[in-house]
Automatic annotation (TrEMBL):
This is O-linked N-acetylglucosamine (GlcNAc) transferase. InterPro entries: OGT (IPR037919), TPR-like_helical_dom_sf (IPR011990), TPR_rpt (IPR019734). GO terms for molecular function: protein O-acetylglucosaminyltransferase activity. TPR repeats lie at residues 79-112, 113-146. Signal peptide: none annotated. The lineage of its organism: Eukaryota, Metazoa, Chordata, Craniata, Vertebrata.
Amino acid sequence: MASSVGNVADSTGLAELAHREYQSGDFEAAERHCMQLWRQEPDNTGVLLLLSSIHFQCRRLDRSAHFSTLAIKQNPMLAEAYSNLGNVYKERGQLQEAIEHYRHALRLKPDFIDGYINLAAALVAAGDMEGAVQAYVSALQYNPVSRPWTQFVYLIIRQQPSTKPNVLVFCQTLTLNMSCTPKPPQSDVNSSIVLPRHQIKCYWSHTHLSDVNAGVDILI
């Protein structure tokens, strides 16, 4: 009994350590501790998701896809694994496959906020601005304050500068429907949008190891 309790404690400690290392950008150490934990718990889909995220950050896309696929084999209903695969396809420029995987993830988990944001980013890259806006509005409907929506505005304008006038109209319309945000004056629409020029926090789903939401800041 004592040994069993000790193993659980060791596993929990390893999981927390791996998360901290991942968040701090020490991917080599995070991978090492994940592999140690995976040997102890080969059915742990949370470990597989985190390994997928680690390899994605290191641009080892084949390995990232491999661990996402293993997670899906363990649990075909695991939305985060399909989203991680979508990230790999998007990075490879296979936008249609990425979009299909994000949409499948959302069918499995309709309140998956990061899934909507990933889908929106892929649709922007594919030039489908209307679809991207719809995806992001869906995310806001589940949780209006889950992510700063100005990040999404910046993403669209950065990808497609010619869409800026239409995006500004969208922002004003969105503002009117968000109780947490006051309506900006017509003359101040531009100033009401804070475009982050230094960092956007991008999320890759690996939250099955613990309840701590983790993200990685990407310089742009």
